[in-house]
Design brief:
This protein has 14 helices and eight strands. The protein is elongated. Strands 1, 4, 5, 6 and 7 form a five-stranded mixed β-sheet that branches. The protein has a three-stranded antiparallel β-sheet with strand order 3-2-8, with no helix packed on it. It has 358 residues and is of the alpha+beta class.
Length: 358
């Protein structure tokens, strides 16, 4: 059973929000479905402070859905580089093209179902876009809202389980008012982000501390329950740092799906033997250097141990489609996998040494 009636809950929350909520975020200015949509996608699993500069650069380059739809995926992912979860950027680009092709350039904010069918937009994100950009009543259930409701009602079980998620949707539906929906949805997200935090909830300042069931039992840190743990697997890869006489680095375009889909990366190999065979076939005159120190890049579901292997070559035959030479000193506007971008930034200018004289 909900601990409060809808009107009481909304009144308490909005009173707190009017005094303590966030009112000056970039996407709160000139609210349009497009701007709200971009911000909501960027904010998925990413903190506000990280998103703000990316959002502002994105809006400067793509001020509307038409300009985003017309852009190349390379340029979109270039502006996304560093935000992680690159499928979000690819889906953003695809959704913009769908909006232009199938909805005459207008987001279908009059239909939750139509919004949720756009690439990368689920039920909660669709609700947030509709509520935030139009003021229509729409229910949201992002990570922050799940945490607030789970603690408020002491909801047992991992929120990712279907039965638990259904219960949370019912609670979210119960508490969402018909008035001031723009402020209410923002307030729910703000409450979870600033007070009802994951590790250190600030219960004394919460407008619901006197009715929160988790707080009453002293178990607020137990909620929401964590996903059942699995051993995080470790994978390994060799990344080839092949440079030509001008110091340029050879990059390959990753497949459109999977790890770093659609991004440019260093050529990757499972082992030294595969790397050597590739060099023998494509750059037989290349000179291999000593492998550099390995480092680990952490993904949500596995860890990747990367060993950079430097090599140099005077020249290669023409580079085929899906490959390019990249100059770290004058970088192109292309999307790069985060560890690759980091590696490229550490490279100093060089040219191959001339052959020794007789």
């Amino acid at each position: 059973m909900p601990v409060l009636e809808r009107e009481t809950f909304a009144s308490r929350l909005l009173t707190w929000y009017d005094q303590h909520g966030r009112h000056d975020l970039p996407w709160q200015q000139d609210r349009t479905p497009y701007r709200v949509w971009v911000s909501e996608i960027m904010l998925q699993q990413t903190q506000v402070t990280t998103v703000i500069p990316y959002f502002e650069r994105f809006m400067a380059r793509f001020p509307d859905v038409a300009s985003l739809a017309e852009a190349s995926q390379d340029e979109v992912l270039h502006l996304w580089t560093g935000l992680g979860y690159y499928a979000r950027g690819r889906n953003l680009h695809k959704a913009a093209q769908v909006v232009m092709a199938e909805h005459d350039g207008r987001f279908p904010v009059d239909s939750l179902e139509a919004m949720a069918q756009l690439p990368g937009i689920g039920r909660s994100t669709a609700g947030a876009i509709i509520a935030q950009s139009t003021g229509q009543r729409a229910v949201i259930l992002d990570g922050n809202v799940k945490r607030v409701l789970t603690r408020l009602q002491a909801v047992e079980g991992w929120p990712g389980r279907p039965a638990v998620e259904r219960e949370l949707w019912q609670l979210a539906e119960h508490y969402t008012p018909h008035d001031r929906v723009v402020d209410f949805t923002q307030a729910m997200m703000d409450l979870g982000a600033t007070l009802c935090r994951r590790g250190q909830p600030d219960c004394p300042r919460c407008p619901f501390h006197d009715v929160c069931l988790a707080h009453a039992s002293g178990e607020q840190r137990r909620f929401p329950e964590s996903k059942p743990k699995k051993t995080t697997p470790l994978r390994t890869t060799r990344m080839l740092l092949l440079r030509d006489a001008g110091g340029r680095v050879l990059l390959e375009l990753r497949p459109s799906t999977g790890l770093w889909g659609g991004l440019w990366s260093l050529p990757q190999f499972d082992n030294d033997q595969d790397l050597g065979r590739w060099l023998d076939e494509h750059a037989p005159a290349a000179e291999r250097g000593t492998p550099q120190t390995s480092f680990t890049h952490v993904f949500s579901h596995f860890r990747l141990e990367i060993t950079p292997v430097p090599a140099s070559v005077e020249h290669m035959d023409s580079v085929s489609e899906g490959w390019r030479w990249y100059d770290p000193q004058t970088p192109d506007s292309v999307g790069l996998a985060a560890p690759v971008k980091k590696l490229l930034q550490t490279l100093s200018p060089f040219t191959l040494s001339p052959p020794a004289g007789p």
